[in-house]
Amino acid sequence: MALKRRDFLLFLGASAGTVALGSCSSPAQNGSGSLTQINPNPDTLSFKPVKGPLPLESDRVPSTKQIEAYSRYEVVDDLVLPEGFTYDVIGAWGDKVGDSRFGYNNDYLSFIETGQNEGYLTINFEYISGGTWMQTYAQVIGESLPFEEVKAVAAKSEGKINAFALPDNDPLKAKIRQISLEGLIDQGLGVISISKTADGTWTRTYSTADRRITGISGYEDDRYLKATGPAVAVFQKAQGQGYQDGLGDRIIGTFQNCAGGTTPWGTVLSAEENFQDQVPEPVYADGTSFDPAALPFVINDYFVDGRGNVFGLAGNKYGWMVEVDPADANDYGTKHSWLGRFRHEAVAFKVVSGKPLAVYSGCDRRGGHLYKFVSKDTVSDPTDKTNSRLMAEGMLYAAVFEPDGTGRWIALTPTTPVNPVLPSTVEGSLVPLPKRPQGGIVEVTTDAEAVAFKQQFATLGDLYAGNDLEKQGAILIDAHFAANAAGATPTARPEDTDMAADGSLYIAFTSGSPGGDGGPDKRVFKGPQGETPWEYGWILRLVENQDDPAAMTFRWDSFAMGGEPAEGGAGFSNPDNLEFDKNGNVWMVTDISTSKHNQPVTSRVNDQGESISQTDIQGIFGNNSIWCMPTSGTMAGNAYLFGIGPMECETTGPFFSPDQKTLFLAIQHPGEKYGIRKDNQTETRKFVIKTLNGQQFLQERYVPLGSNWPHQGTTEPPKPAVVAIRRLDNQPITMA
C-alpha cells in the first residue's frame, strides 16, 4: 500500500533521532512557514487518474485483480490525459518567432497576463538531442547542414575537432561554424504573445515583443546580454591567468536553459544548466576561463556538442541565472552573478515587504548543492519592477542539511573557512575540490585527502586570486566547487525549487545515485527503509527560521518519495519540475532518463541470484509523466497520475494560467532515442511488476519505437512543442 506523507519519518526512517512529520510547531497562520498544513482541501479529485504501467493505490483495483488488470499494458505515442481533458499545440520547433524560430527541447514556461485571456508566454529551449535533431533538421527547417561531411572528418579523431584553432579561411571551420550556429539558435529563450478564444483554445497573436534570445545572440548583432555583480570585475580584466574573450561585461547568448521562475514583479528568470556541454566549466583561481580548446567541437551519430568552441566563447560567462522582462521588446537578458555560476535548475523567490529578497536555486548534478541569495537591500513593493536591482548586491549561501531535520546556510565569501565534506559520508565517495595552484578541480576520494586540503587552505580567499572584489567574483564563478570546499551538503540532483503560499520551499531531488560528479550525503538521502543509494528521488520541504528570508537556519522534512508503491514509494520515479495550483496542490513532472524508458525487466535478480540495481529496473515506470499531490487533508502526500507523455520525451515546465483553466506544458525531446517512428513500429517487451502487496508477476508491454508527435502522421518527424491543457467543459483544471 502506498505510504502517505504523514506516515513518513525523515529520510532516515524510524530511529531515535527522528521526529514525526507534522508534529513540529503550532498551526500555521497568515503566511507562516510552519511545517503543519494550512490549505483546507476537500478529499476529492477534479479528475479521474489515468492508468499507468504500475498498480497504484489511486487505481482502486483490489489486490486480487491487479495481476489481471496489469498483465498487459499498451504505451501510447501521445500526451495521455484524463477523461474530459484535451490539449492544443501552441508552438513547435521550427515555427516562426520574431526574426528567428521556435527552438528545440522547450523546458520552463512562464505565462504573464497582460489582459483578460491574453499575455506573454516565455519559453526556455534547453538543448538539442543530437541524433534526432540531425535526422529531422532538413525536414523541419527546410535547409540542409553538412553533418555527414563533418562527422567523417571528426571520426578520425574520436569525434572531436578543435575548430577554434583552425584558420578562419578553413572550409572545415566554416562548416563547423554553420552547424554550431544553427544548434545554438535552437537554444536559449523565446517570448511569444498568445490569447484565448471563446472556445478555450490558445492562439498566437504575433506582437512586436515576440523575440528569440538565442545561444548566439550578440555574435552577429548587438543583442548582447548584460551582467551584474562581482563576476563583472573578472570579465572586465584586461589580462588573467586564463582565457578572456575581449568583450568585457558583454555576453554572447544564453544556452542550456532548463527550468526557471517568475518574479512577483513580472520578469522571468531562466536557468543555464548543463553549460559544460558547450563550453569549458573549470576556471583558474582568478575566475578566468580555460581555453576553448579544453572543450572541442564534438559530433557523432548521437551528439553535436562543444558548439561554443568555434566561436571562442568564454566558459565563465555561462552557468548563470538570466533575467528577462517579456514585455520589454529590447530586453535580451541580464545574468546576475550574485546568484552564482553552477548548473542551475529552477529558481524560487521569497518576497516579503520590508525584508531582504531571497532567491533559491539548485545545482542539478550528482552531489550538487542548494543555494540561497539574500539581497543587501529590502523589498518595498513586491510587484515593483525595480526589485530586479536587489539581485545586484547581497550574498550567496549554500545549504547544510543535518540528518536530524535541521539545517544552516554557509556564506560563499573569501573569509569563509575551508571545511570540505568528508568523502566517507558521500554516496560514491567523491568530493571534487578546487585544484590549486593550477586551475580546475581535483577529485578527492578519501577523508585523509579532504583533511589535508583543509590544512593547506584556511579560507575560500586562499583558493582564489585578485583584489577583494575579484576574489568574490571568482568564488561566484566557481560556486559549486567553492561550496564543496566550504562544506555544503552534496545532495541528490536538486532539479526544482518552488515557493508555497505558506512561505515554505519545496525542492525536487531527482536521483540519489552517485556519478562522475559526486553523490549525495548518504546520511540524509535514504529510501523508506534506509536504503542507499535511492535512485527514485524525493520532494523535500524547507522552512526558514521564523519564516525570515534572511534566516541562517532552517528545518526540513520529506513531503513525498519516489519509488514503487510496494516498496514504500509514491509510484513515480525521478521528480523534476514543480508547480502549485491555487488550492495548494503540488503538480509534478518526472525526469526519467530516456535510455531507461520502458527498458525490459525480465528478472529482478542477476545470474548470481542478487537483486539488480534500481537503475536497472527503471523501465517499469514507462514514459515520463505528470502527477498531482495534495498538500493537506487525508490525501496529503498521495500522488495521482494526471498524464503520460509521448514516446521518449520529458514532460517539463508546467505552469497554470491565473484562472486555473489552462495548464501550459512543454513536451521535450519526443523520439530522442529512436527518432521518427516508421510504419507504426512497435515492440513487445516483458516486465516483472509488483502488486501493491509485493507479489511479482510478468507484464507484457507494447512499446512504440520512436515518435511522430505532435502531428502523428506515420512519416512525421517528432518535434518538441508547447501545449495548453484544458477541460472540455471550460472549468478550472485544479482540484476543487
From TrEMBL:
Annotated InterPro entries: PhoX, TAT_signal
Pfam families assigned = PhoX
What does the record give as the organism's lineage?
Bacteria, Bacillati, Cyanobacteriota, Cyanophyceae, Coleofasciculales
Q: What is this protein called?
A: Tat pathway signal sequence domain protein
